[in-house]
């Protein structure tokens, strides 16, 4: 890693770089939170059911998961600054197409374009931080980047609800245009150009196997509700997806330069971090999708009111970022993640008791507590996964983490949509019955999250420490 920086000019450059990366996080989080709040309004405008609008989210996250494996290679091949600017431009174009979409199918297609830009925006920005900052400052740098990025959730739900009521849902995408333009211009001016390095040949065969496997599994989950596929079709998609992922693993074992080398999994912290990210997010990533739907569909909130109710989540998330680093440093990753994963699951399970008569103060406290523990979970999982990677594996490991995150998000929303649809059919479509379906869905997704705590329990003592000295995989063996 880079040596510790003491030059004031270099320190200023690093600070500007952090803010540039935060702009990318801001665009992502603003878009995600606005879309979640506006789904019922979109459904009414497009003539769709609000309980079956998860394809708008799944298409975006699945596209990101598909393209993220190529992001590390593209950053090394074409340069991080060039790729980062291109990602912002593509994201802005996708946002414009979303705003102009006249139907759900066109909106989903536009979200694919937007997701293509996001697939490069998030991992390349994090890769810049990983390659630029010295190891002992990486945890602090990642926490700092996350704080400006959380401004999106802070204003996104309220802004989205206000735009939907005052104007139309189309404006929730147009809001990305000025932010993207400013971010692209600032990146061209301030982001450094790293020296060129030798780039290995792209593993196209492995990429196709991996991408097809992710798409097939995600479509199988979404097919249970959003796509209306029959059970036989879902089963065939699931089998093809799993066989494709198995084929990729066998392909990577015999290829000298695979897309993601199996040798990466010799790093204990990365291995546990990736598995924990996948299964923990599989449960918790559905909450930004479910909560606004619950408030608007089952409790009669307006879009603006539902957006205001998401403010406690964002404020608590921002407040918790500064506390995460000291807690990890004192107690270690294992203890923090095991306990906090259980807390995230319990807070999700608390929505089983949600009702229209619930006191407002209690609901605000419930949302704030969920935002706090969920924020700590994300920061701890991300830094655990990347903390023991060296410069030679940083690009590949970072792309793998981003791919797992987006795949878990898409699968989590698709799974929640399928569970919600199943319980809706079971309880019926009335007002009270719809609330019962939401409650049962929250309970099921909470159990998935709680179960993932067992993964973090497997952390070895040396991998749990928040130390600064990187160990080679050979030394671990």
Automatic annotation (TrEMBL):
Keywords: Cell membrane, Membrane, Transmembrane, Transmembrane helix, Transport. Residues 17-464 form the Major facilitator superfamily (MFS) profile domain. InterPro entries: EmrB-like, MFS, MFS_dom, MFS_trans_sf. GO terms for molecular function: transmembrane transporter activity. SUPFAM superfamilies: MFS general substrate transporter. The keyword Cytoplasm does not apply. GO terms for cellular component: plasma membrane. It is found in: Cell membrane. It comes from the Bacteria. Its main location: membrane. It is a multi-pass membrane protein. The chain crosses the membrane at residues 16-39, 51-71, 83-102, 108-129, 141-163, 169-190, 202-221, 233-253, 301-320, 332-354, 360-380, 400-420, 440-460. NCBIfam families: efflux_EmrB, PRK10504.1. This is EmrB/QacA subfamily drug resistance transporter.
